[in-house]
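Summary for the lay section of the report: proteins are chains of building blocks that fold into shapes. Here we show the chain for Nephrocystin 3-like N-terminal domain-containing protein and then a coded description of the shape we predicted for it.
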Amino acid sequence: MTLSTNAPYTLPCASLALLAEDLSAASRRSKNHRGTLTICEEKYLAFARRMDIFFDLIAAAIPSSSAWHCNFWGLICAVFKAAGTYVIVFEKVTELLESVTHLMPDYKQLLAARTRPLDLEERRGSETYFEPVLHVVTDVAQFLRELQEMLTRTSHGDPLRHNRLFSPTYLWRPLDSRFAQLEARLVRNKEWLEKELGGTETEYAITEKYRAECREFLDKQSQAQEGEELGLQRMAKRMRRIDRIKTWLDSNCSYRDIYEHRLRQRHPNTCAWFLDNEKYCRWRNIPFDDESANDTDRLENHWQHRVLFVQAESGFGKSYLSGIVVDDLSSEAGNLSIDDETESPSTAFYHFSAAHSYCIHPDDALRALTDQLIYTHRHDRSTLDAVSLLVRKTPTHEKATPDDVLSTLALLLRQHPTFLVIDGIDECSDVELLLRYIPTLCRKSDTRVVLFGRPHVRIPNEYHKWASDAPHVISLGSGSNKHDVEAYIIENLHELADQGYFGISMDRSLITAIAQTCKGNFLWASCLLKYLRSPVLSPDERRAKLEKPHELDGLEAIYAHILALLEFRPEGERRFVVGVFRLLALGIHRPCMPGFQKAINVSPGQRTIEFGPSFTTNEAIPLLTCDLVEVTPCNVTFAHNSVREYLQAVSPDTSSFSLQDENLAHAHLAAVCISFLAFDIPKRPLGPNNPHVSQLLLSSQAQSSATSMRTINSGDSGYKSISSAPSISEHRHAAPGPSNVPASSARPPCQPQWDAALPFLRYASLCWPIHLTRALTPPLNSSSQQLQSSPSSSSQQYPWLTSLSTFLTDRAAVTTWVEASWRYNLPPNLSRLVPLLEAVKSRTPPATVEGRELRWVVHGVRELSEGLNAVREGWGHRVREDPGLVWGWRGGRGMI
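The coded shape description reads as follows.
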């Protein structure tokens, strides 16, 4: 029997005392999480002390094994240092070693209880006493080396083949499965050793029989189990682990959405000039190698040279350019390996877009990048081991924290050579945090990162390296892609001319003239073509626009012309477009695609008909908005964030599509939500009651609860209750749009089965009080106050009034809404609405129809608010367990 603990990037450690010093020094060098490292250090030392006695025994029986313990201590130190870089992985590895420590036999204790002494000659002459000891040391050393391989990058030509214990088939079992076998082997070896040391001379036959059983058990575990069915079962188990880690990561951003959408729009043979850029080629072509990837000092000192910034103004076409880079890195990956054994680099990417305002936090990017790499390397052994380790004993409902995701991503980047392409960093909600994450990743791996953004993004000082040209920045001006944009315009305009868009008497020299005014702005060129393709324009009007290029100068001029075209749409289509703009720009959160389709078809004050010519699908939105809004399989968004900015800047006197008056927009969205609840939901319980909870409620006295009934799980909903919403001033100073969440962008959870047929129910139930609160909140600036008082019609000023009145008079509708809110873990709270409605009532003449209706609405909302508070404070703990109980509560007039 032999043992080899030599492993790449492992230095022998002469003694246990030196190992303790090395571990302590490694803990002190850590800048973060020093307390965690110190606790884990103690557990590593406890593990090493338990192993120390076994090496003394082996040395007595096998004199040639004197160097084994030095290699073993070095292996422990290597695992400690490698795992200490990734906090969550470090804690998981420490848990494994702690379990091994408890499972290993305590030889000193067994020897003390031995019935007859064991002399040195017997130790040297018989291996039977030490065979289980050798098994323990060999198994544990093998497992440590596997951990070290998982935590470093090893060549594909250097798999673990050095140990007789594990067959090739066994090697491809995930780490948690192998650890379960290790635990079983340790338990059997412990029992074997107890039998060897506890038996008497007269029990030789019994001991020999038990010895044979142990050998048979251990040999059987080491044998490869083949078979197609077994292979399929193992593959299914691996994929379940991948699914669990993806659920744990909780990445709901459609990271491929923007890339694939831009890919379909990409003009052939464009952006090739960038791929020949000297800085880009130098950044891309430096080969990856395992030695550099595992050299922590080199990674720490030279990370700045692996980060590349590409900067250009808005509208340049950076998203298209980033897509070209993704394709280039993916296609050229095989040419960047230094030899056949080195793994080809993979590419992961993320696009920040303010139009996708629910996925613009740095944590969203980290989750998406990690999700991509796990999928890319789902068949790789080291990645599968890491996944198995992370999900081991992790509750299925638990979600990864930002630190967990950062550690996981850093480990994946350490395991595999990787390019990261991140576009739109200027549209990230926290650029400073993102630019702090990048050095953290680059100091722990040899990954290379390219960041696309606008020139105004300030590069932190840590990206600057003394006596070098870091940071590496490629600055692109209007002349960089002028030729590509001109070719794009000319080709598309000639195509339109061939199709008769400009009539039969067009002077084609106009095409060249208009192309030369592009100034290298791809966004302007794209919007120009959208405008000219509009079916509202006649051929003569299109030709006249080309004859007056000064009227099309600048992006704002194009947007103004497009909105002017939309003004000629029928009234119903204009209302539809306004609703789309308002929901995209000022929605609290983005509904799912079916929910969005339902929302834009709601006509406040009447039931929605989901068929016929009046019902509009999401696919029709680009046509009706002249492509200012784009629709992909996963998202409905503005074509560019500048569209929203223009709509919020343009005066209502200039365009009826203006979003400058946010109060009016929120009033409309509140009316949509309330109308849906009043007319379009079933007036019955949404789910089955819990009979046990119902019986408890009827037979026991309610217990008052002073705790917030927002509940500890309210984060699942992705919405804020009114009681926990930001103050009015916070709303006014926050960035416009649905990105007013302070931390990671909210992700809509999986749709529960009970509301699968009502995709807009979540948004309508949880957001109508927020929209109405913002609609009634007095604006801070005087111009907005003038805007608020400008509508002369009460239906324009208070579009929510009729729907809210109808809603309050329908007890079944109110009760359904209350049940839905509780099911979404956000108990309803209207406390903030009451004083705001009182203020509106005081400004409205009481003799008018609106004044009388407002008085009744204020009275109804006040009573409903009191009833909701009573349910929350007195019965909340019961209703939280069974929301259907609200159908049997009669404490308030607003519910059944």
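Put simply, here is one thing we learned. The radius of gyration is 34 Å.
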